[in-house]
Amino acid sequence: MSDDGREHLTYELFGTATRDLAQAIANDGYEPDLILSIARGGLFVAGGLGYALDVKNLHVVNVEFYTGVGETLDMPVMLPPVPNTIDLSRKKVLVADDVADTGSTLRLVHDFCAENVAEVRSVVLYEKPQSLVRCEYVWKRTDRWINFPWSVLSPVVQRDGRVRDA
């Protein structure tokens, strides 16, 4: 953390956080059959945990909620392709995301899984006090805005396909 009041996660610290979370999951005796990442931030977490926990069965769910810094839709929405519940049936699922901020996204994905899986648990790098979901595995709790290394810089390509000036 720096003096600007934000959490600053570096790629090096992300590696430490991922290993710490994997160790906590292993120490807990939880052996997920698959990791379901919430795109986009959860992709990084799921990939790191997949290697650390030796889980090769990784799935992705795309959820749109945040539209800007502190700006959200009224409710999170799953975007296609939505995971096929038959792929999740009777599995122990670990839902991975970068942050449980409001918890709305995690709640949507958790509820989607709950009816179809043997067990569902959640893992995040950061959990905020106002989160609707209390994750089983949390690296750090904070009420600050978080600068993640993968999202702190502007995109090099704009959505219309033009390359940004350096």
TrEMBL record:
Keyword terms, alphabetized: Glycosyltransferase, Transferase
Claim: Glycosyltransferase is one of the keywords in the record: yes
Pfam family name, one: Pribosyltran
Matches recorded under PANTHER family: HYPOXANTHINE PHOSPHORIBOSYLTRANSFERASE, HYPOXANTHINE-GUANINE PHOSPHORIBOSYLTRANSFERASE
Coiled-coil annotated residue ranges, if any: none
Name of the protein described by the UniProt record: Phosphoribosyltransferase domain-containing protein
Residue ranges of every copy of the Phosphoribosyltransferase domain listed in the record: 16-152
Cytoplasm recorded as keyword: no
GO molecular function, one term: glycosyltransferase activity
